[in-house]
TrEMBL record:
Pfam families registered for this protein in UniProt: DUF2200
Organism of this sequence: Mangrovimonas yunxiaonensis
Source superkingdom: Bacteria
Protein name per Swiss-Prot or TrEMBL: DUF2200 domain-containing protein
Length: 121
């Protein structure tokens, strides 16, 4: 499935703060913790807990969120389908990065072991 420019723009303008509570709900409903959620966010972005909190408080858009992130060198190993899109086929870098995060949260909620979620080459 190919993304449209409108879809990519909508993702860029969406705030991390608007999606974060959904991530928390999703992982806690499956018995995982906020600490584990932060572990996967930190692994992908290079942010620390204070950075994550600042992005929430400042209602940072995903465009700004990922422009300030230092993407993990193993992020390219995140593959599969999320939200109807095959990650490895996404052409827009920002959309791909947001879907990386969605996929990590999904794997966490599905009970995947942390070692598998935090890919190592």
């Amino acid at each position: 499935m190919k993304t449209t420019p409108e879809h990519n723009n909508r993702i860029a303008k969406m705030t991390f703060a608007s999606v974060y509570p959904h991530y928390v709900t999703k992982v806690e409903k499956k018995g995982r913790t906020i600490a584990e959620l932060h572990t996967v966010i930190k692994w992908l972005t290079g942010f620390n807990d204070e950075d994550i909190q600042n992005h929430i408080e400042n209602k940072t858009t995903f465009e700004t969120f990922f422009s300030q992130a230092t993407l993990n060198k193993h992020a390219h190993l995140i593959k599969g389908v999320i939200c109807g899109y095959r990650i490895e086929e996404l052409k827009t870098p920002l959309t791909k990065q947001v879907r990386y995060l969605d996929k990590l949260v999904d794997e966490l909620a599905k009970g995947k072991k942390m070692d598998k979620i935090l890919r190592k080459e």
